[in-house]
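3.2 Worked example (two chains)
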Amino acid sequence: MTDVIPTPPKPVRKRVQMPEQLPEVRIHNFNEVSLGYTQEQAVREARRCLQCKKAPCVSGCPVGIDIPGFVGAIADGNLRRAIAIVKRSNLLPAICGRVCPQSRQCQAQCVLGKKGSPVSIGNLEGFIADWERKEGGVKLPAIAPSTGKKVAVVGSGPGGLTVAADCVQLGHKVTVFEALHKLGGVLVYGIPEFRLPKAILDEEVDVLASMGVEFRMDALIGAVLSVKELQEQYDAVYLGLGAGLPYFLGIPGENLAGVYSANEYLTRSNLMKAYLFPEYDTPIRRGTNVAVVGGGNVAMDSARIAVRLGAEHVYLVYRRSREEMPARREEIEHAIQEGVDCQLLRNPTRIIGDGHGNVAGLEIVKMELGEPDASGRRRPIPIEGSEYQIEVDVVVPAIGNGANPLLTKSTRGLKLNKWGYIVADPETGATSMKGVFAGGDIVRGAATVILAMGDGRVASRAIHEYVTANRHD
């Protein structure tokens, strides 16, 4: 296998579809749904790129990848150059190619999308990352001479890993503190195996370890160590702890057995490997009829896991229409293909018990859309007298997360907003505490992997400037 492959003789305008497992096959396994482009398919898709001079796609990428550059290199068959271009801005391309909402970011800006299908930027990023791992051999980036400065990173999610990668390349000694026993944050506990195989995540984390990043697991900052103690031991601190406090519906019956927050449901399946039963006998209720409430990626993941855990009927209850769903379009389509019953313009009003403390049903009210609210989406309004009930034995609210107060509430001098999120300068990530920076969901609220990485990129530059200017003494 060579780094350079022949290119097709003519440009291609029809989008090259990603090969996938058939729905009737994949609902019985947790293997990755997407099978990946072949080299020939990737080159054909890359040749659709118009190589726009102004490159609007780049403006839609939070980490500023040179998209025309790496896509053009694939089109020319120069795969080694393509992955080198991607890694100038992103050391986690196999992850981003799989889980980033490209349809709302880079691909949304693609000129081809105005009259047809945009270039499949995410699929191409995933392809080139997989090619490097399997065929090209992972090449470590250059590491600057040691500065003698030490940086502590709290959280090994996408933002924390980005800060760690950037800072170690700049010559700083980096230690990442992770509360769980596995690295990856939301990437490992929140995203199912069929979307992001954990072996791929492990390999990308291993690259950072090879670069010199130190990882400490089972290190709950706020309990094991305080932020103040980290300030005393390190030249700068980055807080990328995510937003892991689940929101509930606030309706009667949420204390019944069979109600799981999406966080718990996903963690039990992904991190605790309930999907590998009976090899891993993780306690989780495998419902016959499951209702998942919400319309984001977490809701789609929960619903699709329920299908794979053997549910006969999975309802997705969402109070707006499909057009307002914040989930990736690809995930919505996959969920529908897999048999998830989308109950749109519907909202739960109470969870019904069986008289013995277990979930037996869900009462739902029909909704209609009114005027736009603060989110820019039309506000859902209940239709009086339209309530009905469905029979379910598991209910999974997947309506977002808040800031876990363990670290924030125990850290004096750390300014928070009214929702409990850390206040940080969007230009630098600097917080109210000297030498302490923050980004990702703990600042933004629940957002996306690539936005957390973008925050990490901003903060790592500011951290480098801060520690090398000796402004922490």
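3.2.1 Second chain
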Amino acid sequence: MDYRFVSVRKADSIVHVTLNRPAVRNAFNRDVIAELTDWAERTRADKAIRVAVLAGEGSVFCAGADVEWLLASVDYTREQYFEDARALHAMLSAIDTLPCAVIARIHGAAIAGGVGLTSVCDIAIAADDTIFAITETRIGIVPAIISPFVLAKIGPSAARDRFITGMRFSADDARHMGLVHAVVPLHQLDETVARYVKEVLSAGPEAVATAKVLIRKVSGLTPEEAAPIAAEINADRRMSAEGRAGMNAFLNKQRPPWTK
């Protein structure tokens, strides 16, 4: 996969995906969105990939929308705004629903759309000096397209605060509200990402994909509503070849086949 603004490096079952526009702090434009969407769809079809690590080149992870792109959109028609919205949603949804685990390596800053990108990653690891913000209201608009993905991570209470004020918040604040899962010094960031990659690879690849589906299906349901869905998924996994192999390895004190 050769892209202009996104670099992709695959090593065995791990793919490293890096936003590569450091001169503009890895800001989004139509091309970046299209390239990330294409990468996600190609990755969905590649059954060999078990982990994707998403990062940003240069000083920050992602600073949101490109200023030049915003300037060009000032005179858009309503339909053009809809087109951009559909494209951004499609990109976020494509990453959010990937069957492999997606790990975000976050440093410097994640602003506006950068928070949206963080939200669609399964595991987010941030350097302790990273700055986060959802700044759309400060320029008179709202974080509409990223909102369902961000809300799924931080909930409506934190969203009321961050969406309305647009104020900056720290990596520790992001961890406390559930946006990120680990906060470490910058010099430990790659080591921590590698540790999480190792943990993901210890899990069955089909089980990982199914766990992601399970979360989407039962989130927001009552236990009673979730019970039949959970029971069906549980039975399917227990009867699957991977599930049987994993259980057999566990009971016989052996390594499961996907770790060999």
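3.3 Remarks
The two ends are 28 Å apart (CA to CA).
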